Amino acid sequence: MRFDMRAAIYARYSSDNQREASIADQVDTCRRVIARTGWQEIGTYEDRAISGASASRPGYQQLLADAEAGKFDVVVCEALDRLGRRLADVAALHDQLSYLGIKVHAANAGEITPMHIGMLGTMAQMYLADLRDKTRRGQRGRVQAGRIPAGRAYGYDIVESDDGDGGARQINPAEAAVVRRIFEAYAAGHSPRRIAHDLNAEGVPGPRGGRWRDTTIRGQVDRGTGILNNDLYVGRVVWNRCSYVKNPRTGRRVARPNPPDQHEVVQVPALRIVDDALWNRVKERQNALHFTVQRDDSGNALNRAHRRRFLLSGLLVCGHCGGRYTIIGVDRYGCATRRSQGTCQNNRTITRQEIERRVLDGLKDRLLAPDMVETFMQAYQDELKHAQCAADADRERLEAERAEIQGKIDNILQAIEANPEARTLASRLNELETRLAQIDGELERMPEPEAVELHPNAAQAYRRKAEDLQSALEDRNRPVRAALASDVRRLG
Q: Rounded CA gap, 45 and 147, in Å?
């Protein structure tokens, strides 16, 4: 590698038994490498408490974007597994950086080559698989010993066990009484929402000390979540209900319920809070309601319906409690906090059509007023000119650098013709030609400069689009969300 290279540092630590200072330690190690090689540090990219199994890391993604922009010539990291744990991600990164003419240098291995990618990348991926297996094995062992693998279930306190190992529980009498009350109320026909309202009205603290929600009580039957589905209340620990896999695109964990024959079940009678008779009454009611919701009049299974999204979905807020205003009935918005917790006194509701009409009227009558449109047009024009000037400046800089490099190449070629033994000049020539190819690629990807002006009738076009949008919202046969997104893009 040459000595005048611009170096970028990448550092990362996961949340697995590591600490914040790990970033500073990694950066210091990389800076020592840069100082030793004589490179120029241009910046640091960091990801804190984020697993290397996912490429969806802010610092990592910014590193890729700046690599495309040609902001550095080499990436320096403490070890290859800092860049990623998955072999596919590391290999793809190396291929992309190689295409851009950017090197990768690890403090513990030197310049990274395809051989390193194959060996170190495989080791990093094996480490992830081994860590996952060891974690599951440890959890299974704790379950088989009658311990809770993780979390503090409502109704219990964590206690120190005789062997000093965590996971031991004992019943919390006050919380256990609330658990029995919830089971009895549900079995008697009360809904989880009604139960949550009653508990909140009496000031009974929820599992985390806050308010009760209907979802906290209801949970999901197949995953064993929620108060009504926790087998621990009848004296048994059930583990491995779900398998968790990471989506390779988003890096998010996705739960997949396992069949019952894969569940680990251990009896812990000392932790029983609810008797079998009450538990079975709750299960019978859950099964009956589940059948009613999931079947039509003929008993045929219904497809799970996706919640419809409207123009203002997720944007409305209750002015009384600050909670969300959501659809609580047929085309009617109301306070979600009042509905799920019963703690908000705002009982006012409004139809979807009325609130959307008010918003669109505001769009037409206020945002499209002549003085507002004139201000917008001027600001938009200024922004266009600013963006064009920035693009022109980048193009001029690259063209100037290209001319300078081309001049150096011509001089080196002349020197080599005069002295064919000048091998160092040949090496320098190769570096300059690589950079020249990078510049040509950047110039080729740059859009041609063009003058962009707003049409003098832009204000009238805005008003027409707003009126068309209102018509689209009133047409139930037209995909509202798609029409909105399309029209708003045209308006902007």
A: 41
pLDDT digits (tens, 9 = 90+) for 142-192: 655 656 666 678 998 877 765 555 557 889 999 999 999 999 999 999 999
Q: Which of 402, 423, 403 lies closest to 412, judged by CA?
A: 423
- Residue (of 207, 212, 210, 167) closest to 185 by Cα position: 212
**Range 370-454 has CATH code 1.10.10:** no
3-state secondary structure the chain: CCCCCEEEEEEEECCCCCCCHHHHHHHHHHHHHHHHHCCEEEEEEEEECCCCCCCCCHHHHHHHHHHHCCCCCEEEECCHHHHCCCHHHHHHHHHHHHHCCCEEEECCCEECCHHHHHHHHHHHHHHHHHHHHHHHHHHHHHHHCCCCCCCCCCCEEEECCCCCCCCEEEECHHHHHHHHHHHHHHHCCCCHHHHHHHHHHCCCCCCCCCCCCHHHHHCCCCCCCCHHHCHHHHCEEEECCEEEEECCCCCCEEEEECCHHHCEEEECHHHCCCCHHHHHHHHHHHHHHHHHHHECCCCCECCCCCCCCCCCCCCCECCCCCCEEEEEECCEEEEHHHHHCCCCCCCCCEEHHHHHHHHHHHHHHHHCCHHHHHHHHHHHHHHHHHHHHHHHHHHHHHHHHHHHHHHHHHHHHHHHHHCCCCHHHHHHHHHHHHHHHHHHHHHHHCCCCCCCCCCCCHHHHHHHHHHHHHHHHHCCCCCHHHHHHHHHHHHC
Q: Give, in words, the CATH class of 6-131.
A: alpha beta
Rounded to an integer, what distance in angstroms lies between the CA atom of residue 176 and that of residue 170?
Answer: 11
Q: Residue type for 289, please?
A: L
Q: Which is nearest to 163 in space by CA: 180, 184, 142, 149?
A: 142
Give start-end residues of each CATH 3.40.50.1390 domain in the chain: 6-131
- CATH 1.10.287-classified regions of the chain: 370-454
pLDDT tens by residue, 351-401 = 888 888 888 777 766 666 667 667 766 777 777 777 777 777 888 888 888
Q: Tell me the C-alpha to C-alpha distance, in Å, between residue 288 and each of 21, 223, 291, 432.
A: 54, 18, 5, 75
Does position 198 have pLDDT exceeding 70, yes or no?
yes
Tokens representing 402?
């290209």
Distance CA 64, CA 36 (A): 25
Task: Give the sheet arrangement for strand 325-329, strand by strand.
Answer: 325-329, 332-335, 350-351
d(CA 307, CA 322): 23
The domain 156-294 having CATH identifier 3.40.50.620: the answer here is: no
Quote the tokens at residue 204. 């009974």
